[in-house]
Amino acid sequence: MQYDRIYPIRRNEHLSDALLRAGMKFIPNNCIINKRIPGIGATHFELTSPRKSIIIEPNVPVIENKSRKHEHCLAVMQGVTVTKIMHFLEEYGNTNYKLLTTPESFFKIKEAMEKLEINMYKDCFMLFDECEKLVQDVDFRNSIKLPIDDFFRFDSKAMISATPIIANDIRFRHFTKVLIKPEYEYRLPLNIIQTNNITLALSELLTNKRQKVCIFCNSIDSINSFFRLIPRLQDSCTYCSKDGIEKLYAGKRRDKSVFISEPGRHNFFTSRFFSAVDIECEPPHVVIISDLHGATQSTIDPKTEAIQIAGRFRNGVRSLTHITTIDPNLEYQEKEETDNWLQGAGELYKQWVQELKTSHNDGKRTLLREAISNNSYTRFLDENALIDSFLIANYYEEQAVRKLYTDINLLLEAYQKADYFLINYEEKNFDISDDERLAIQRIVSLKTKYEWLLRKFEQIAYLKTNKDKKMQARHHQLLQGLLNSEGEQNLYRCYSRFGAEYVRTLELKDKAIREAIGAAPTIIIKNSPKAKALFAKRFETGKEYSPTEIKVMMNHFYNELNIEPLKHMTAKEIEKFARIEEYRGHNGRIIRIKEIL
Do 512 and 545 share a domain, yes or no? Predict the structure, then answer.
């Protein structure tokens, strides 16, 4: 965006300071303002300015938060009636009242003003906050642009955001583009982790975080998966929409809210909390999740959403991390492809409309009506069948962001261009990827699934025997992601006792596996090459042991095979598996292994 005016802002200053220094007591009129830094008091400035204002906020939590803190301010959203707005206007009509509203509830303000014969277009200043949402959200929330025609009718108006995206709408042609430019180092350190397993990467990151953690993820399904697979997240709270709450209730997740209270130890936030909400708490560790394999809607735009997320915390952050997968096969359109598609589709659509006007053949007219009303081009048209500049801009933005997640270099380059972060990049891959984990869930054949699981058990076995406790924890976490049924858990028990080859002799049948793990220890060891090898490694032929050593070693031996040790283990237990010789030595009774059975 090319800027007509640039106003400097210094460290610890607010937007009001920068504008006052430039000779302005108010947010300027007919402007698109890039305030660059979230949380510099733009909305507060308008809420305290001596004029009547209508402020449009895309998300309810912001309205709830701001309206509680200011006098002569009414929050207008679902549940607030036209009558209530009229009473408010009648009571505070002589004051510099403020109406904070969602885009969907603006019509109620308009109706109330009309009934009271108030000319809001002349009497009020309109501010559209977080204006990039007009473009970013319009594809799934068409109602967000309901006030836009009225917006342009106001004598005094402005759009503002730290990350503005402006549609190519001719009505913006006379707007002044303003940049609030920081005169200090404002960029934040950001660690970008590319991984093939989101859950494990998140789990290992959380292990090292002792303070509050706030996780931003635009997928309830992904959040549910984290709850299930990462034990330390069982007591976390999720801040989301009412629809998200219903989905979490279905998943029996206890703590969830549409409003932000004091964040707990671990917290999840969905997209409604990505922008504008002030979160006041001690500086947390902030984690952004983009799960391309589980939820493509969780892509994050580096130049907008990432900046907004980082700016939610009024006391700063301890650390900022973006964990992401990359999908080279993610479909997207290049800008030139979109240009050509829209041009071709638009020309054909106009031909259909023109033919419908001139044709007198009933059959032709019927098919033309069907074609005009049901095609992939109509998604870009408004209610008057005209090109909607916001829907067009949304599509370009969506395709551009999708492209970033096909190549890590494109994503890193986008972060550099955003000029808001100091980037550190690392790659962290695991033995089992999200792709593999999701693929195995789709396998119908039990035998095929069990064979795949056996190969994975063998592949990750080295982690279990690693002396590094982090590697052992990784083994446990990988297993948690694999074992989703009782049959799969039995398969692992059987594998850990007997080894993969013996399990394969059972033809991977559930009944045979259950019988094997229920067998007596003697039968298990005699039938398992793995158990025999482990016994021979623990008890060397010809070596002498004390009875106490035998008992301790037999307990360890059973534990390694996932066999429940005897409640009263005795040295005699070894005679089930080896011929021994007993005699008395200087320090008491001695047992020597003569031969392993």
Answer: no
Q: 343 and 255, same structural domain?
A: no
| Tokens found for residue 1 | 């965006």
**Residue with token string 């707990």:** 264
For 453-462, the pLDDT digits (tens) are 999 998 998 8
In angstroms, the CA 329 to CA 574 distance is 57
Q: Say which residue the tokens 């959403």 belong to.
A: 305
Q: Where does a domain end: 456, 484, 518?
A: 518
Range of 348's domain?
A: 335-402
**270 and 377: one domain?**
no
The CB-side HSE value for 295 (13 A sphere, CA atoms) comes to 21
Let me know if residue 524 belongs to a domain.
no
Count of domains for the chain:
5
196, 456, 523, 551, 594 from 531: Cα distances, Å: 34, 20, 10, 17, 19
Q: Do 393 and 450 belong to one domain? A: no
Q: How far is CA 61 from the centre of its chain?
A: 18
Question: Which of 90-99, 194-203, 421-430, 577-586 has the lowest average pLDDT?
Answer: 577-586
Q: Do 444 and 298 lie in a common domain?
A: no
Question: DSSP class of residue 432?
Answer: S
Which of 233-247, 354-368, 448-462, 530-544 has the lowest average pLDDT?
233-247
Helix (H, G, I), strand (E, B) or coil at 138: coil
Instruction: Check the CA dihedral 305-309-314-315 and report its sign.
Output: negative
Rounded distance, CA 238 to CA 248, Å? Answer: 9
| One domain for residues 370 and 412 | no
pTM of the full structure: 0.81
Listed residue (131, 133, 113) closest to 33, CA to CA:
131
By C-alpha distance, which of 419, 10, 4 is closest to 182? 10
Residues 29, 110 within the same domain: yes
Whole-angstrom Cα distance, residue 76 to residue 127?
15
Give yes or no for a contact between 549 and 589, defined as CB atoms under 8 angstroms apart.
Answer: no
For residue 259, the number of C-alpha atoms closer than 13 Å in the C-beta half-sphere is 6
pLDDT tens per residue, range 460-483:
988 888 888 889 888 888 888 888
